Amino acid sequence: MASAKISDERLYVALDLPSIDEARAIVEILGNTVESYKVGLQLLPLGGAEFGQELKALGKNVFYDFKLHDIGATVEKATRSISGLGADLLTVHARPDVMVSAAAGRGDSSLKILGVTVLTSLDKQALEDIGYHENAENLVMRRVEQALKAGIDGVVSSPLEANKIRSAVPDDFLVVTPGIRMPDGDKGDQKRIATPGDALRSGASHIVVGRPITAAIDPHQAALDVLANMRA
Ligand code: C5P
Hints:
With 232 residues, the protein is an alpha/beta fold. It has one domain: TIM Barrel, CATH 3.20.20.70. Helix content is 42%, strand content 16%. It has ten helices and eight strands. An eight-stranded parallel barrel has the order 1-2-3-4-5-6-7-8, surrounded by five helices. The longest helix is centred in the middle third of the chain and has 15 residues, at 136-150. It is globular and about 40 Å long. It starts with 10 loop residues before the first strand and ends with a helix. The structure holds cytidine-5'-monophosphate (C5P). Cytidine-5'-monophosphate (C5P) binds next to strand 8 and helix 9.
């Protein structure tokens, strides 16, 4: 009898590591357990975009977390460049003009654009300090509406807002949630968090997990634990 597939492409492992060699080592350790990877700001300046292409050649899903935020013309051209790399997901900050420009730059490539609503490390006090007087939930919902209007494919949000977002968007709209911690895990700098299973039950289409897997003593076992929690 064929054994059940363990991996789940809804799990994106964030490769926030100091070097491509270390990222490659984690990908090798995780093997067939993980199908999807996020390459973000720590690796992108070190050849992360090329490494993403290496991951694509291995058949993995690749999410470039550039979090673009610039004038429209620059965002459009940057998105066009990134769409040529063959990745699956790209983030931009969820500002209306930025999202519209990214949608234009993506053209008819298969790259999907996600708007970053509110960083999951920001709580009420942190938002006030920046000068946002709206609470996180209202700010997120305002940005979700703007993402839909801009014609992008989804948003990144805390798992605590996934439920409300899911009820306001079409079924194929992506809701990608970082801020994922295991029930007994260390929160670190994340403030608005949920377990893998709770995030999916709340309406997340994909989850992003970084340090709970990459900084674990046994990353392979940690990934298996996350996958089990996703199924629970
Ligand atoms: O290590 P940890 O699981 O906290 O990693 C979460 C990842 O998700 C990091 O790469 C972080 O940049 C990213 N992220 C986030 N909050 C957002 C968007 C992205 O934590 N709103």
